[in-house]
Amino acid sequence: MSQPGTESSGQRILVVDDDPALAEMLQLVLRKERFITEWCSSGTAALPAFEKFRPDLILLDLMLPGLSGIEVCREIRRVSGTPIIMLTARSDTHDVVAGLEAGADDYVSKPFKSKELVARIRARLRQPLDAAPEADLMTVGDITVDVRAHQVTRDGEEISLTPLEFDLLVALARRPHEVFSRDLLLQEVWGYRHAADNRLVNVHVQRLRSKIERDPEHPSIVITVRGVGYRAGDGGEEDR
Q1: Is the preceding omega at residue 48 within 30 degrees of 0, hence cis?
Q2: Where are the domains of the chain?
Q3: Contact 197, 185 (CB under 8 A)
Q4: How many helices (H) and strands (E) does the chain have?
Q5: Angstrom distances, CA of residue 175 to CA of 7, 29, 138, 170, 191
Q6: Nearest-angstrom CA–CA distance, 182 and 201
Q7: pLDDT of residue 215
Q8: pLDDT, tens digit, for every residue of 186-210?
Q9: Burial class, 11, CB count within 10 angstroms (exposed 0-12 / middle 13-18 / buried 19+)
Q10: Where does the record place the modification 4-aspartylphosphate (predicted)?
Q11: What are the tens digits of pLDDT across the range 53-103?
Q12: Mean pLDDT rounded to a whole number for the chain
């Protein structure tokens, strides 16, 4: 049930978790932070709840009755770029990567601290800073990035990216001659201020490449600099 606070921020968060006690705690924390919340307890109920509630962000448990969190994530990504933060009791590489590859923007391992979770949520919901006028339109290889319109095109055709994928591309495109370490990208795109999981960067670079590269196996727009990180390319073929 949706229970907005008396002074809500207007931002809506859908909590999908089959643990009623945890879900209640999460909603209390979120309402205290002035979010509007809705809760459902199964993967099967998550998709109808998403359609009805139209959240600004989803907290999605990995292990759910009915559809799994990974299946729910995939289905939502077919129709929406709404930010998704996975909640998981599992932190091994396979489960984390599977969730990220399905389209999750970030993940938090249980048990977690409320302040850390809220910080992750606010980072994903933050409004992008207006670019300087000269940086409104940027070209990387053969794609054009319109920052104000939040749009990426190739030959006049729009390329659909999630907000996080767009932020990742813009971070690289704004400083085309700079090599970004994974830690720096985590700070600039995810909002981390401490060492975190570099798998977030690696998986999302792969997802971004699958959408913007003509040949993701031989990327020319997001280039790997071995042993360092990533940089924007000029459209010429280079090693990953």
Answers
A1: no
A2: 12-125, 137-232
A3: no
A4: 8, 12
A5: 40, 38, 10, 9, 18
A6: 6
A7: 94
A8: 999 998 866 667 889 999 999 999 9
A9: middle
A10: 61
A11: 999 999 999 989 999 999 999 999 999 999 999 998 766 668 888 999 999
A12: 88
CA distance 228 to 213: 21
Cα distances (Å, whole numbers) of residue 80 to 12, 50, 72, 103: 15, 10, 12, 10
Token pair, residue 91, equals 């932190």
Whose CA is closest to 185, among 232, 145, 239, 230?
Answer: 230
Structure tokens at 108: 């938090």
Measure the CA–CA gap between 220 and 215, rounded to whole angstroms. Answer: 8
Cα 108 to Cα 90: distance, rounded to the nearest angstrom: 10
User: ∠137-220-192 over CA atoms, to 5°?
Assistant: 70
Q: Mean pLDDT lowest for which of 7-11, 180-184, 231-235?
A: 7-11
pTM, two decimal places: 0.84
DSSP string, 130-159: PPPGGGSEEEETTEEEETTTTEEEETTEEE
Residue 184 neighbours by CB under 8 Å, 6+ apart: 229
CATH of domain 137-232: 1.10.10.10
For 89-103, 137-151, 218-232, which range has the lowest pLDDT when averaged over its residues?
89-103
Q: Say if residue 15's pLDDT is above 90.
A: yes
Q: Is the Cβ–Cβ distance between 193 and 170 less than 8 Å?
A: no
Q: Which residues on adjacent β-strands are paired with residue 233?
A: none
